[in-house]
Amino acid sequence: MDSVIISNNGMYLYMLDRFLTPVVGGSSQWNLCYRRSIHTQYDFKFHQRCDGKKNTLTIIKKNEFVFGGFTDIPWAGADFVYRETTKAFIFSLRNKEQLGPFKSMVKEPSNAIYNHMYRGPTFGRTDIRIDTTHKLVDSSSSHLGTSYSAPNEVKDNSTILAGANRFDPDELEVFYLQ
């Protein structure tokens, strides 16, 4: 995986492999379909490059925090609907509360991902929402525990992933399984 966010961190790569193996198997070839710093920060570019691809992995970096999500169903920006799956999950490799890496499974499968042409990858109703179309500062947000489970040790569901409820990603990458 050619990630500028995690490629230099063996522990991140190891944990992500442990999270992914139960849903995609042990040998996997991940290809980049979107990187914010290359393909522009606008959400429509994410959809141009990633819509229709199954088994996508989103990795987000905000300051020192690294998190994201996986879905086995394809993104489709023009749908404007929630899509259902039981295989989607959110993960944290480094978080504000200094908990170890964790994986949060979808608990509302009918709200696993949300497709909207003016939003980037959106997991659950409010768990992770990437929204940078309008170039508003801190228009993306996270609130873990709505449609995805949150570890019992989490003290603040709205800041655990990105360090704040509203944020602007420093980098965002989406990979698909080939």
TrEMBL record:
Cited InterPro entries: TLDc_dom
Name of a matching Pfam family: TLD
Domain of life: Eukaryota
Start and end residues of each TLDc domain: 4-178
Naturally occurring in which organism (per UniProt): Porites lobata
Name this protein carries in UniProt: TLDc domain-containing protein
